[in-house]
């Protein structure tokens, strides 16, 4: 089976964009691949984060992975910092990554602009650590949302440069898996921005753990336009974003959805969308509560995940060291 690797930062509220752009796709294809899904806590410390919050978010994200349907029969779930090879490999690969490549990373520029008082070296080198996550496991596919496209590209560049420098196939070249629909869910408040964990306005996103009442309020407030026409239209990103979410939850084709709401207003559509969201999230929330209230089992799953993936990480790191003459 081909190897799949992906991860999410435990930096707060996991939202519908993370679900539709990433987790749901992981779950849907999990039996086809040899999967590794990581909770990337080393990435989470590139911006200021409270220690207790980081520790709790890490467990919460693990519980959410399971609640969304990731199955330990098909997937290894682990915490990045539990496998030291990520940090060690990251130092080595920093020394094989031209600064010019990192200067071009759009996500660094955005995050640096948003957090001018706390830009550290780790944030700058973030893509190298992400490349190491992927390369350590000889990954074939990286299922992610659209915002990670450039990070997977630089991973390929780093791998290719290293392989050709030493004329050896040390790294497998990974490919991004980005779906046509749902790879970029937009903010409910400002549909020209992506839905994001760090948006200061909580009404801009639906969190997977939002209560039905909150979901209803957020969808009711979601930005649309004055046209009152429920139709997919790139010129009208607000309603189109809501329709895309609805389409992903129902699996219906665009024309069928437009026909369903022909002659109806945004209110009717928003009510239907709210029902679908609640119906999708309620079972996830129920299972989440079971997992989060059984911390012993959760820690066990994470330890087992790390123990299972570590040999592959060690093998790749040792090979890298051998090739470059370290150790
Ligand atoms: P993160 O934690 O920002 O996001 C996790 C996943 O959710 C996707 N995503 C979205 N998809 C659709 N619409 C949105 N609005 C939206 N927002 C987020 C992201 O594309 C991602 O797939 N750097 C990564 C974490 C990472 C990683 C890795 C990923 C570290 N190492 C190795 C893959 C492989 C990140 O910050 O994702």
Automatic annotation (TrEMBL):
Catalyzes the attachment of tryptophan to tRNA(Trp). A motif ('HIGH' region) lies at residues 10-18. One of its GO terms (molecular function) is ATP binding. Its main location: cytoplasm. Keywords: Aminoacyl-tRNA synthetase, ATP-binding, Cytoplasm, Ligase, Nucleotide-binding, Protein biosynthesis. This is Tryptophan--tRNA ligase. InterPro entries: aa-tRNA-synth_I_CS, aa-tRNA-synth_Ic, Rossmann-like_a/b/a_fold, Trp-tRNA-ligase, Trp-tRNA-ligase_bac-type, Trp-tRNA_synthetase. It holds the Pfam family tRNA-synt_1b. ATP binds at residues 9-11, 17-18, 145-147, 185, 194-198. It comes from Ktedonosporobacter rubrisoli. It is an enzyme of class 6 (ligase). One of its GO terms (cellular component) is cytoplasm. L-tryptophan binds at residue 133. Belongs to the class-I aminoacyl-tRNA synthetase family. A motif ('KMSKS' region) lies at residues 194-198. Its EC number is 6.1.1.2. The keyword Nucleotide-binding applies. It catalyses: tRNA(Trp) + L-tryptophan + ATP = L-tryptophyl-tRNA(Trp) + AMP + diphosphate + H(+).
């Amino acid at each position: 089976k081909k190897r799949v690797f992906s991860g999410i930062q435990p930096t707060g509220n996991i939202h519908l964009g993370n679900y539709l752009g990433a987790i749901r796709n992981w779950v849907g294809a999990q039996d086809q691949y040899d999967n590794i899904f990581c909770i990337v806590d080393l990435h989470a410390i590139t911006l200021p984060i409270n220690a207790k919050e980081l520790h709790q978010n890490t467990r919460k994200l693990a519980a959410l992975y399971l609640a969304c349907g990731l199955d330990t029969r098909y997937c290894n779930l682990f915490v990045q910092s539990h496998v030291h090879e990520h940090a060690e490999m990251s130092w080595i690969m920093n020394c094989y990554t031209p600064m010019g490549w990192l200067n071009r990373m759009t996500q660094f520029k955005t995050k640096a602009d948003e957090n001018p008082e706390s830009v550290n070296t780790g944030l700058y080198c973030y893509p190298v650590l992400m490349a190491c996550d992927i390369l350590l496991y000889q990954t074939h596919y990286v299922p992610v949302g659209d915002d990670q496209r450039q990070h997977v590209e630089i991973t390929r560049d780093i791998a290719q440069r290293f392989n050709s420098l030493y004329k050896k196939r040390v790294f497998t070249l990974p490919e991004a898996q980005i779906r046509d629909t749902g790879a970029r869910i937009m903010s409910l408040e400002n549909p020209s921005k992506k839905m994001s964990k760090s948006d200061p306005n909580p009404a801009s996103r639906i969190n997977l753990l939002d209560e039905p009442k909150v979901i209803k309020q957020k969808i009711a407030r979601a930005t649309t336009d004055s046209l009152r026409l429920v139709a997919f239209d790139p010129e009208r990103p607000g309603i189109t974003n809501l329709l895309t979410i609805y389409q992903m939850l129902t699996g219906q084709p665009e024309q069928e959805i437009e026909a369903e709401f022909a002659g109806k207003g945004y209110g009717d559509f928003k009510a239907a969308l709210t029902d679908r969201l609640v119906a999708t999230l309620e079972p996830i929330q129920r299972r989440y509560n079971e997992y989060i209230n059984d911390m012993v089992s959760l820690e066990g799953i994470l330890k087992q995940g790390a123990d299972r993936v570590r040999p592959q990480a060690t093998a790749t790191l040792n090979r890298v060291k051998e090739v470059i003459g370290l150790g």
